[in-house]
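Why this split exists: single-chain examples teach little about how molecules sit against one another. For that reason, every record in the complexes split bundles all components of an assembly together and asks for one structure covering all of them. Below is a record exactly as it appears in the raw files.
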Amino acid sequence: MTACHEVVNPDLMVSIKDGSYLVALAGQPNMGKSTIFNNLTGLNQHVGNWPGKTIDRCSGQFHFAGKEITLIDLPGTYSLTANSPEEIIAREFILRERPDVVVAVVSAANLERSLYLVSELITLKAPLIVALNMMDVAEQEGLRVDTDALERTLGVPVVPMTATRSTGTSVLQKVLDQTLLRELKPNPVVPDIRSDHRQIVDELLSEISGFIPIPYPSEWIAFKLLEGDHEITRLMQAQLPTERWETVQTILKAHEDAFLAIVSARYEWIEQLIRVSVIHPRLGQIGITDRLDRWAAHPFWGLAILASILGLVFELTFSIGVPVQSWLAHQLIAPLTSSLSSILGGAPVWLDSQVINGVMGGVGAVVSFLPIMVIFFAAFGLLEDMGYMARAAYVMDNLMHMMGLHGKSFLPLFLGFGCNVPAVMGARTIDSRPARLLTILVAPLIPCTARMAVVAFLAPAFFGSQAILVTWGLVILSVGMLVASGALLNQVLFKGQRSAFIMEMPLYHIPNGRTIGLLVWQRSLSFLKKAGTTILAISIGVWALSVLPGGSLQTSYLAQLGHFLEPVGRWMGLDWRLTVALLTSFMAKENAVATLGVLFGAGGSSLAQQLAATYSMASALSFLTVSILFIPCAATVAVVRQETGSWRWTLLNISFMLALSVGAASMVYAVASRIGM
Amino acid sequence: MPHGTHFYSPLTELSSGERAVIFQFNIPNTTVNRLLSLGFTPGVEISMMQNYGRGPLVVVVRGTRVALGRSEALGILVNRRYQ
């Protein structure tokens, strides 16, 4: 074909490169973008980070009609104004990487809102395809969308889809192919500017033209300046000579309200599109979402429902996850350890011992937590995909306010009950940096399953039938400490500032097994990767301290440290052995029990008996308190470092928790020994 | 209530089920920008879904349910023409 001679608008030209193409998938949150991404790429995807940012970057490959297509899943954004790092990533990608096509995912059930991003995307140079997803939900809500009319009025291809049922994927591929081959002649209709604003834009353009860095389109820059976009404002301030910048500022000052007019013009453009393409249902009907929300988002019943769901997840964790975990530990990790040790029989002792104890002890322990994590990830994914998680965040908002956070921070903290590692990583979904940092700093105070395992072993040994009471007391103590620390840290570090709570409450819908499955798969994979890299390194380090120089724990550097720290331990009623046990819990929390096993030369119930005979109840209670509040484990420290991007915050986190745990345990010991425990 | 004049009040004063029209914003521009991209523009109809007098509230704007913190809602002035 000879399309290249017929191209009307050269800006819309698609570059042809040896059959490989770059396609970006854009869309607002809750539009089913990930499901479309999964449908197109299957398991052939890679999750990484955007350079310099802690935001997931998903890319994948697929082949269609002899073409190799690299699909980039841009972060979900409501607009292209720099309200958050996600928006900057999305627009910088489209402007700088020049994808051959941008696919904009919109929801047929919520066209008015979701077309807003399209109103911005359509002004950029990249060829656009609109994927009109959630046709089934629209139908349920009684909405009828005339796809052809929408396509005609927009001037770009529109593909109706129901991604959860994989409908429309092949049509999307075909339209993508036609767009790449330039078989279609798009004629995008962009939002109009009112004439009075046209004049302002022209005024701005005459000041800034010639100073606009590649690859930014000049009119786009003018609009972003009027919208008060701080990134673009900063960029142009740096580009322009001082006098010109002052003139620009005078223009902007005189039209401070222009951003309202620009946004309103986009919505007027959307309203026109809706008028020709959507037939609205009878009004006044109460949808399923409203009916469910009367309970799920009720200030009292909502909390009760959330508590029951959490209870159910814990129940599942302990009835399925824990047995599978111990099965893994005994049937997989232990035999692997012993077969490794027989293979390494001829190797030097240091290597043998390093592999067995350092690697298998640390990493093996973390890996054996995978079943528990899978349950948590699956529960989380299911609740998220159904649309429930926004309700959980909403009903928790009041409580989270006490620590200067808002409802959204509750979601990663929930994961923390399984393991603190994904809790810290999950904080990346929180939009403001202070709130994100604060969430990361308090996340390690959530009692994870590993710490609960230590409590579950020691509490019955000392407290018999009262063990359950002690356990609950410790959980309540941790959560109380979390709230108090959050409030304190917010006052001290962030001057009590509070970020705005604005969150979409998506419609409830039937969860998609495939989406949840892939989510569990990716999160588990990244958890395992972490275990294979950072956790491995730190495990070997901590292990080395526990065997060097003599080769046994009793005479190791760690034991020496334990003896050295014994005076501190004494405040809490701990002897050097309990102190060493506490120190080894840094490698992995459940190591505390294993270390006591080594030091007492016993295991299981005989260890429990020996401990009960050796220590007073006051010491035991104090040890449990300090264990549950102690510094985050090595794996958590590693991700705190990664997610905050700074050792300062990491060290602050460690020292804060150290002070908190030692302080709390000392107090517990003082009170408990006074009342004669 | 005065005749023929409009009645402006913060969004927090609407009770569940009540509708109004957004009049203007009295919150930092960064927050306004986020609201704008969710469809909260002056002149648009807003319906209160849930307002229990304290804590966050839920509104519907342009067919989208949005949860708002109470302090954000205080800075959104609405015109209760349906009164």
